[in-house]
Every structure is written in C-alpha cells, then in structure tokens.
Design a protein that fits this description.
The structure is a single chain. The chain contains 11 helices and 8 strands. The chain is of the alpha/beta class and 219 residues long. The protein has one domain: TIM Barrel. Strands 1-2-3-4-5-6-7-8 form an 8-stranded parallel beta barrel, surrounded by 7 helices. Strand 3, helix 4 and strand 4 form a beta-alpha-beta unit. Helix 1 runs parallel beside helix 3 and helix 6 runs parallel beside helix 8. The longest helix has 15 residues. The radius of gyration is 20 Å and the shape is globular. The relative contact order is 0.12. It binds erythose-4-phosphate (E4P). The site of erythose-4-phosphate has 11 residues, from helix 7.
C-alpha cells in the first residue's frame, strides 16, 4: 500500500520524503494556490524531492479540448506525473483518449461506486474517492471504499483506489482496513498517525530501568 502526502508544501514534502514513508504527493489547485509563486516551479521542486514518487497535478481548464491539451502539457513535466481530472461525464471522451495515449490519470472528486466503475472501465491509473467531503454531507465514504474494493476485485480492474479527503487518523485506519491501494493524507494526519502515548511511555520506562544497571558503555 502506498501513502501520498496531500499538500504542495515543499518543506513538509522534504521532511516526509526523508522518512521513506511517502510514495508520492497529491496536489490540487487549492494546495498550489496556498503556496503562492509559480506553480510549475513548486511542482518541479516536488519532483526533485521525490524523483521516483508519483506526483498528481490537477487540470485547471474547463472545456474538454482545453483540458485534454493541458493534461498533455502537465504529463510532459515528467514520467512520474499523474494528471488529475475531475470525474464528470463531459470529460469521459478525453479521459478515454488520454488513457489510450498512456497518460497516467488520477480521476478526482469521485463520490459514488458507479463513478468508480465507469473510471475503472476506462482504465485510469487511480480513482480518488473523497471520504471527508462525503462525511460532510453525512454519507458513509468508508463503506463506499469497501464497495469499490469489492467491485475492483470482482471484475479484476487494474485501476488503483486512492482514498482522498481523509480528515482523521481514524479515516486513515479505516481506509487501510478497506484494502485501498493508496491513501493520501495531510501532514497533520501523518504526524498524528506516527504517535502513540504508550510508545513514549515505554521508552521512558526502559530508560529508567536501564539506568539502574549503572553501566557506562553498552555493548
Ligand atoms: C486529493 O487528491 C485531494 O487533494 C484532497 O484529498 C482533498 O481533500 P479535502 O476534501 O480535505 O479538500
């Protein structure tokens, strides 16, 4: 299973790339806008930090032909780039075309099992079901992840399930339990997920007991 960082903040990506835990990054227009400056430079900095990681970059155009042209330009930034395209019907023809042209796509803003099936049929690299935004409208995104996983395995689709919009460590836990291929998480969630109070407490206890031996060098 892969873990992606859901941010465009280069310093955070640097910190987490050094840990070996993250396999890629999902940016979006909101993340890039928050960082300011030239978004192409930010994307290139991220690519340099994770030369073999998977970096998602979202289209900003609206009209299908313009989305297609922009997707090609984004994909040309590097071999490890995935182009994020929103899951709407008007883009189905260009999604099909881009897949045929071997452009790696991460279909974003996925909210139903059926949208997931349609995108899997088109052979995209990833679908991104948005769990937190479903929770915002009192819908159970985690159950949907299980349904998508069942659909994927039943029909043998190769499209990866990328759990997105995860808002809590519990969401991450449940996404892992659902057997997703990737979970993308904020640095805040990742930070919290590394910790357990008993780990710190255990270290302290071992340290106190060790000191009772009174030896200076070991081994
Ligand atoms: C994923 O690719 C998206 O960037 C992200 O998970 C959206 O999360 P949000 O609903 O918290 O904005």
């Amino acid at each position: 299973m892969k873990i992606f960082l859901d941010t465009a903040k280069v310093s955070d990506i640097k910190k987490w790339s050094d840990t070996g835990i993250i396999d890629g990054v999902t940016t979006n227009p909101s993340h890039l806008s928050k960082e300011g400056g030239d978004p192409v430079k930010v994307i290139k900095d991220i690519m340099n930090l994770l030369p073999s990681g998977e970096i998602s970059v979202e289209v900003t155009e609206k009209e299908p032909q313009a989305v297609y042209d922009q997707a090609k330009k984004i994909a040309a930034l590097g071999p490890n780039i995935l182009v994020k395209i929103p899951c709407t019907e008007e883009y189905y023809p260009i999604i099909q075309k881009l897949v045929a042209e071997q452009v790696k796509l991460n279909i974003t803003l996925v909210f139903t099992l059926i949208q997931s099936l349609f995108m899997s049929k088109l052979g995209v690299t990833y679908i991104s079901p948005f769990i937190g935004r479903l929770a915002d409208i009192d819908e159970d995104g985690i159950s949907m992840l299980h349904e998508i996983k069942y659909m994927k395995d039943s029909y043998g689709f190769s499209t990866g399930i990328l759990a997105a919009s995860l808002r809590t460590v519990e969401h991450l836990h449940e996404a892992i339990e659902a057997g997703v291929d990737v979970a993308t998480v904020s640095t805040d969630i990742l930070e919290k997920a590394t910790k357990h109070p008993l780990t710190k407490q255990g270290i302290k206890q071992f340290d106190e007991d060790w000191k009772k031996l009174g030896i200076k060098q070991f081994p």
